[in-house]
Automatic annotation (TrEMBL):
GO cellular component, one term: cytoplasm
Segments forming domain DAGKc: 1-153
UniProt entry keywords in alphabetical sequence: Kinase, Transferase
Pfam family, one: DAGK_cat
GO biological process: sphingosine biosynthetic process
Protein name per Swiss-Prot or TrEMBL: ATP-NAD kinase-like domain-containing protein
SUPFAM superfamilies: NAD kinase/diacylglycerol kinase-like
Organism: Thelephora terrestris
GO molecular function annotation: lipid kinase activity
Entry-linked Gene3D superfamilies: Probable inorganic polyphosphate/atp-NAD kinase, domain 1
Length: 403
């Protein structure tokens, strides 16, 4: 018996109509029994409804049909994954949660990464591919989780840092420009329900840089932090990551810092982490895309305001190239600082693959404290930090998507 969760206010607010007009008839025609339909009434409702379903199901598969965007999927995964009673389930009860996706959000990153959109797709049939996969019970993909701890500074001199919140992402964990875009675009949601609002928010934030320190942690599979070498088209160990000292510290300022799991794109055409699909690998791995302005030697000697204006053009080129099949990872600086796709110059984008990362924002930099987890915004407390680690799916538990 499947549970249906539908977010009536996600995307262009058509999830409820889509479920009634297309999903329910298709399930009925294929004799798929439905336990309950939940229309979410507030943020977080999807998580509690999904957890109640999982907690009360003692036998049979845990199938949850989710008509929403990535934020609602995030609510469901975080609530279930972090619930103590889920982790301590009796071995007799099912522990694997099967997600059936119906893309009714704004960006639908997970869906568009798992079901690549094609120009000839019929819009309704495209959105029903997850339901068809569920009915056929064909292929299932396990999700890697990115588990983030938001850590506050010690309350008094001698005490330990305090873990303020833990959250579980299945798509994106970011700081810097992407987090600012998601933060500011929320204000535009009613006015611009489509993905256009992300472009408007990008323009509002494109000149901003973010101060702080990032540390990258090795993956358990390779023991090192890897970086993409576009010249040889392969991941190689980062020059500073050695087996006995594998962490890599990268200093700011940062223009862009975003990590993904399970997805190569954040919107149907915005392929920000193209190597997730081009160079796939299983395991507890994150792909991280970083832009640091001071890799551009041509900024040398400019005044602070001027260097931000000059670099904003280059950040814009990176984002535009991500819409061109992820070509941003091939961009370099020519000897004059111009951004080009050919040659031997310094890379504009650093593309890492590793086990996790930590971010300590500069206390003076307000917006560097914004953290985006699957589109939801958290704020790192002043003096605190955020740490994200990848967790690979196990054979018996975790989250699986029908594809
Ligand atoms: N009735 C509701 N009122 C307000 N917020 C809700 C309601 N139901 C769900 N939400 C919240 O809305 C947020 C966004 O929803 P969702 O991800 O489904 O759509 P989206 O943001 O438009 O799509 P995407 O995440 O793909 O860009 C979720 O975090 C969810 O908790």
């Amino acid at each position: 018996m499947a549970l249906i969760i539908c977010n009536p206010v996600g995307g262009d607010s058509t999830a409820k109509q889509f479920v009634e007009a297309h999903v329910l008839p298709l399930l009925k025609a294929n004799d798929v029994p439905i336990a309950r339909i939940v229309e979410t009434e507030h943020a977080g409702h999807a998580g509690t409804a999904a957890f109640e379903f999982v907690d009360s199901t003692v036998s049979g598969p845990l199938d949850i049909i989710v008509a929403s965007g990535d934020g609602t999927i995030h609510d469901i995964v975080t609530t279930i994954a972090l619930a103590p009673s889920y982790k301590n389930r009796s071995p007799a009860t099912p522990a694997q949660v099967n997600l059936v996706l119906v893309p009714c959000g704004t960006a639908n990153a997970l869906y568009s990464s798992l079901f690549l959109p094609k120009p000839e797709d019929d819009p309704v049939q495209y959105k029903l591919q997850g339901i068809h996969a569920f009915i056929k019970q064909a292929k299932r993909v396990p999700l890697t989780l990115a588990i983030t701890d938001i850590i506050a500074p010690p309350r008094s001199g001698g005490s330990a840092p305090v873990r303020e919140k833990t959250t579980v992402s299945v798509v994106v964990t970011s700081i810097a420009l992407h987090a600012s875009i998601l933060h500011d675009s929320e204000v535009l949601r009613t006015e611009i329900p489509s993905i256009e609002r992300f472009k408007v928010a990008a323009r509002q934030n494109i000149t901003r840089w973010y101060s702080g320190c990032a540390k990258l942690f090795p993956s358990s599979s390779t023991g090192v932090v890897e970086i993409w070498n576009p010249f040889d088209k392969e991941f190689v160990p980062h020059a500073e990551s050695e087996e006995d000292n594998p962490h890599v510290d990268i200093d700011g300022p940062f223009a862009y810092f975003l990590s993904t799991v399970n997805v190569d794109r954040l919107e149907p055409a915005f392929q920000i982490a193209p190597l997730v699909t081009a160079e796939p690998r299983t395991g507890a791995l994150l792909d991280i895309v970083v832009v640091r302005p001071y890799r551009d030697a041509s900024l040398s000697g400019l005044e602070a305001e001027e260097e931000r204006q000059v670099f904003a053009e280059k950040s814009g080129e990176v984002l535009r190239a991500a819409y061109q099949s992820g070509n941003h990872i091939n961009l370099r600086y020519d000897p004059t600082g111009k951004v080009v796709s050919e040659g031997e110059g310094e890379l504009v984008v650093e593309y890492f693959r590793c086990g996790g990362w930590e971010w300590i924002p500069d206390t003076e930099d307000e917006k560097a404290h914004l953290l985006c987890n699957d589109g939801l915004i958290n704020t790192i407390p002043k003096g605190g930090k955020a740490k994200t680690m990848a967790a690979a799916p196990s054979g018996e538990s975790g989250f699986i998507v029908y594809v």
